[in-house]
Amino acid sequence: MDRLYIHLTEDARPDCLLVKEGQRAARRVQGATLREIATQAHGCQVIVLVPAERMLLTTVSVPTSNRQRQLQAVPYLLEDLLVEDVERLHFALGSYRNGEVAVAAVSREQMQAWLDRLSAAGIQTRIMIPDLLTLPRAEGEWSVVAGERLSWIRSGEQEGFCCDTGNLAILLEQALAAAGEQRPQRLRLMECRREGARTAPPLPDLEWHITTCEDGVLSLFASGHRSSGDTSINLLQGRYSQRERLGKLWRPWRPAAALALALLLVQAVAAGVEYRLLAAEKQHLAEQVEGSFRAGFPEIKRLVNPRLQAERALKKLRGQGGGGGFLTLLADAGPVVAGVGDTALQGIGFKEGALVLDLRLKDLQQLDGLEQKLKQLPRLRTEVLSASSRDGHVEARIRVVAGT
After folding, report:
1. Can you give the pLDDT at residue 93?
2. Are residues 51 and 187 in the same domain?
3. Quick one: which of 15, 26, 94, 358 could link to 347 by a disulfide (CB 3.0–4.6 Å)?
4. Bridging pattern class, strands 186-191 and 141-146
């Protein structure tokens, strides 16, 4: 992944360096505001370097390796070394070795100011580290960068200090004298000042390695961070970790979220009740449909699909032959039968495309008249199946089919 290094000093246009993945060369972004730098941050791992002179870098002896207990104990173990009240300071822990833990102490006000500047520009980061802890170094070596105004001294993996460049020689000599057994075997001095300004070796028995930083101080920080890996102290921990920062953003919305959740639960319960009511109504309607179906088609014993079975049964009753269907025959013959006085319909049937009428008439002459009228209909063929006299009237059965 590409890396974007931002040296977040007091300057309104901080130094910025873009390092492409797989490439050794870096592109320096000069004279840009943080908002302009933010356009370069898309798809990059943003690494923010903050001034080490704004904090205390030290180590402290703690009797436990538990990080939570270390964090509880460190503020009070360092209380005598600090000017500000420990309650107003943020403590970030580094590595724990030989009973000592590395610590970076910085005011919460300063941390918030850095984060506010980044947030206002639309820059998000998970890494914020003291700048001097990214200086390139090797085992048994101190790294010293002499700038125009400020100098940085990295005396250990997670230790170091800053000073005015004018006092660098004196303070470096004092630090070397106080190092005791931790005194380095050699010094790596990186000159970032104008030509002619050089730092003389403080002790003659130390091995010196002097280089220049033609590409600027930030290029040194970036190269040291890339070569040493994640060995510095990330200040974004504890209350300033990404999780905690997201938690702060989330807290004001908790009441609204709780209310929304309660509303969703009420809606879910209401939907469940409505579903049960609709299910009961569906079952009731299904029972009604089954009852109506069995009443209309008692000959059908097995009920599978009431609608389809009813359509098939009606189609069968209407007939398969278009013009010779039950309703067609009834529509043609019915008015003729009804027009004969003193005629009573005793029964009606439909079988194999033929309409069968059971009639009671006044006498045989009336039956003959009805037969003649039906035969006059061109679309019908009429046949008297049976006729008999009984109790002063005639009972007859007439078969009507479609004409050919």
Report:
1. 94
2. yes
3. 358
4. parallel
Q: What is the pLDDT of residues 125-160, one digit of tens each?
A: 999 999 999 998 888 899 999 988 899 999 988 999
Give dist(CA 35, CA 120) in Å, integer: 8
Residue 303 lies in a domain: no
Domain containing residue 396: 319-402
Count up the domains in the chain and report the number.
2
What is the spatial distance between Cα 201 and Cα 330, in angstroms, rounded to a whole number?
A: 127
pLDDT digits (tens, 9 = 90+) for 374-402: 888 888 889 999 999 888 888 999 999 98
Q: Cβ(107)–Cβ(89) under 8 Å?
A: yes
In the chain, the percentage of residues whose pLDDT exceeds 90 is 29
Return the pLDDT at 275: 92
Q: Nearest 10 degrees: CA dihedral of 286, 287, 293, 296?
A: -140
Q: Of 240, 264, 294, which residue is a domain's last?
A: 240
Question: Domain for residue 380, yes or no?
Answer: yes
CA 111/CA 375 separation, integer angstroms: 111
- The pLDDT-based confidence of 52 (bands split at 50, 70, 90) is very high
Nearest CA to 106 out of 127, 123, 83 is that of 83
- Distance CA(205)–CA(107), nearest Å, equals 39
143: domain CATH number is 3.30.420.380
Task: Name residue 399's beta-bridge partners.
Answer: 356, 383
Strand order, beta sheet including 380-390: 344-351, 354-361, 393-402, 380-390
Instruction: Report which of 193, 138, 187, 142 is spatially closest to residue 164, judged by C-alpha positions.
Output: 193
Same domain for 222 and 117: yes
CA pair distance 153, 53, nearest whole angstrom = 11
Q: What is the CATH number of the domain that holds 350?
A: 3.30.1360.100
Report whether 363 contacts 392 (CB < 8 A).
no
Q: Which residue has the tokens 């130390």?
A: 206
Asked if the structure places residue 287 within a domain, the reply is no
